[in-house]
Amino acid sequence: MENWTDVNGGSGKSVNYYNTAMGKWEQDWIGSGGVAQRYLNGVYKDNAMQFTYESTQKNKPITGNFKFYNIDKNTVRQYQDVNNDDGKTVTVSYDLTYVRTRLKD
């Protein structure tokens, strides 16, 4: 379970879980304003949790990849790309690095 807040004040949650019927990891993500995304086919390989997703953009189907790279015990890289032209072009949506911080009491 992740609770997040972005720099613009938006917030949301994501839940990762193992789908035993599929033998794969999944993630449900929802942000403020009701934006939601489901990531499927998750596998841990090459030191990263890797998902695929399908969505729509401007009423056209898109696919992409969503990955969490395990850098060390306090650092995670989160990467997402999108493909909206049958594999001809992959565009990086974001490539972020998260560093664990201690919450104030």
What are its keywords?
105 residues, mainly beta, 0% helix
What quaternary form is this?
single chain
Terminal CA distance: 21 Å
Low-confidence blocks of residues: none
Number of strand elements? 8
Beta content: over 45%
Fraction of residues in helix? under 10%
Largest sheet, spatial ordering of strands: 1-2-3-4-5-6-7-8
Mean pLDDT: 88
As for the number of domains, it is 1
Mind describing the biggest β-sheet?
Answer: 8 strands, antiparallel
Order of helices and strands: EEEEEEEE
Count of individual helical segments: 0
Q: Class by helix and strand content?
A: mainly beta
Explain the overall architecture.
With 105 residues, the chain is mostly beta strands. It has one domain (2-99). The protein contains no helices and eight strands. The chain has strands at 2-5, 11-19, 24-31, 36-45, 48-57, 60-72, 75-83, 91-99. The radius of gyration is 15 Å and the shape is globular.
Structure at a glance:
With 105 residues, the chain is mainly beta. The protein is built from no helices and eight strands.
SSE blueprint:
Layout (H helix, E strand, L loop, with lengths): L1 E4 L5 E9 L4 E8 L4 E10 L2 E10 L2 E13 L2 E9 L7 E9 L6
Antiparallel strand pairs: 1-2, 2-3, 3-4, 4-5, 5-6, 6-7, 7-8
